[in-house]
Structure formats: C-alpha cells, structure tokens
Amino acid sequence: MEEAWRELLAEVQQLLKPLGWRKEGGNFRQFLPDGLGWIIQFQRDRYNTAEDISFTVNAGVYFEKNVPAANRRFREYDCQVRARPACLSPRYGRDTWWHLGEGADLAALREEMKAFLLRDVLPFLDRFPTRERTVELILNGQAEAWTDMNILHLQTARLLADMGHGGQVLMLIEPIRNERFQALAVEIREKEKLESDSDD
User: Fold this and answer.
1) Residues 30 and 116 in one domain
2) What is the pLDDT of residues 22-66, one digit of tens each?
3) How many domains, in total, are found in the chain?
4) 76: domain range?
5) Which of 40, 111, 169, 193 has its CB 3.0 to 4.6 Å from that of 28, i.e. a possible disulfide?
6) What pTM, to 2 d.p., does this model score?
7) CB burial string 2-11: b at 16+ within 10 A, e below
C-alpha cells in the first residue's frame, strides 16, 4: 500500500503545485505575500499496517509576529487556525478517514481526494486570504465559528497581544477561568498601563 500512498500524494501534488503549493512528505504548504502560511496535511493513522493505510486531511493557517515567517516548515499543529475540512463539509459532515487497502478502488479514491480538495479544503483556506484578515477573524470570533476546533489557545492569545491587539485579547480572555490566561491578562494590563503612563 505504500506505493498507492505515494501515488495518491503525487496526484495531489500535480493538482496543487500549479497553485503555488510545495510538498514535503504528506504536508503541502503555501506562503502568501504578506507572510501568511497555509498547510494541507495528509495525516496517517498511527495504527496503519503494511496492508492497510488509513488517513485523514487537516488544514491550517499560520502566522508569526514578524514577516516573513521564520519557520518555513511549520506543522499543522503549529497553526493558529486548524480544521478537519471533512467535518465542515456538507458532503461528509463528520470526522472522516479514508482507506487504502485490499479491495479499495484506488482510481476512485484519487478522484475523490482531488474533488474534496477543490470543493472543501481550498475554499476553507480561502476564507483566510491575508494575515491581517486572519487576525481580525480570530479576534471577532468568526474563525472559530468556521472551524471544528478551539481557536484562542494561550499561545495564540499571547501572540496577538504581542502584535498590538492587547485590548481585544484582554476582552476575550478575561472571562476564562484559567490560571495561565488570568496571568496573561495581568501582563497585558500592566503593559497597557506602562504604555499609557509613558504617553502622558
């Protein structure tokens, strides 16, 4: 099945490469001009065997405080916005794993994957067209409404505060009864007070 797996990824690469994507193993990445990064990850099940390969598809949106991003090989789990597009798809609507194994129609599976990428995965990423727009969508809550995962992790909240959005981040994290978020809220208040005092 390893050969079938490689053939599937090669088909995906043929589809994505003309659109500006670069392949690394089961990861496909694209950096936009303003430093925003997109990733499509083909994730294999940890319990796969030589005769049977199960996989799912994840998508993510990545940015850093500075441009260009220093981490050019970011992973899906590094992303500020993450999703399993099949969960959001009208066709699938749930966590979906595909299978390469005995009896699988490999040609049909390759065609299904290409259709899935064009119909569900790329349109999801297109909702985050720029770094500035992505930050806006996280802060106003729309990004989380569009995904199947929690968006405002501590690391993301800290990053957005460091990018100059401390006031908005503070409003989002103050209701969270978590020691680490509350500690970050204190840091943001102290920083904003110092900046206010320096302006006087």
Assistant:
1) yes
2) 999 999 999 999 999 999 999 999 988 888 999 999 999 999 999
3) 2
4) 2-149
5) 40
6) 0.93
7) eeebeebbeb
